[in-house]
Amino acid sequence: MNLSTKFVQLPLILGTVGIALASAVLAYQASLIPVSHLINPDDLVKILQSSKGEKPLMIQVGSHVLYAQAHIPGSEYIGPASSASGIQQLRKRVEPLPRNKFIVIYCGCCPWSHCPNIKPADDALRAMGFSNVRVLYISDNFGANWVDKGYPTARGE
């Protein structure tokens, strides 16, 4: 059991206080993702629009409401990585893939420093041995940092 999973289970033990504590810890963890793991929206758009190179598997690890409102075309919804079920779905989805598969994960539910989903997803993928994972750096939210900039967007599902 990794640190993120422990904090996801903490609210079950501590109730409301645990929820606040777990949320604060998970949000702080997002800021601990090394810069070398990040990709900015401009660079991802260039990769997606290029006719060269491998296209990444893109996985949204946030809420379904957010995904239904707007998401990156071709991305897959997995579920909030701050929950045990979301992490389980993520692991199930990527298990058969080669460990050098280019994967981009993103959320965009809230400002980067408050996102409870990114760090657990990144940790889970790296713990499984994936070496070519990038985390889409969304500083404010998906609407402001992707949709409002006119980047390709799909809706529904």
CATH class: Alpha Beta
How far apart lie the N and C ends?
A: 32 Å
Q: Helix/strand/pairing class, anyone?
A: alpha/beta
CATH topology assignment: Oxidized Rhodanese, domain 1
The amount of helix comes to 40-55%
Average of the residue pLDDT scores: 86
The CATH superfamily is Rhodanese-like domain
Radius of gyration: 15 Å
Structural domain count: 1
Assess the beta-strand content as a share of residues: 5-15%
Helix and strand sequence: HEHEHEHEHEH
Low-pLDDT runs: 1-11, 23-28
Count the strands? 5
Q: How would the global form be characterised?
A: globular
- Largest sheet, strands/sense/barrel: 5 strands, parallel
So, CATH architecture?
Answer: 3-Layer(aba) Sandwich
Compute the number of helices.
6
**Strands in their spatial order, largest beta sheet:** 1-5-4-2-3
Notable traits:
single chain; alpha/beta; Oxidized Rhodanese, domain 1; 6 helices; 5 strands; 10% strand; globular; disordered N terminus
Q: Can you describe this structure?
A:
- With 157 residues, the chain is an alpha/beta fold.
- The protein has one domain (3-149): Rhodanese-like domain (Oxidized Rhodanese, domain 1, 3-Layer(aba) Sandwich), CATH 3.40.250.10.
- Helix content is 43%, strand content 10%.
- It is built from six helices and five strands; from the N terminus they run H-E-H-E-H-E-H-E-H-E-H.
- The chain has a five-stranded parallel sheet.
- Mean pLDDT is 86; it is low at 1-11 and 23-28.
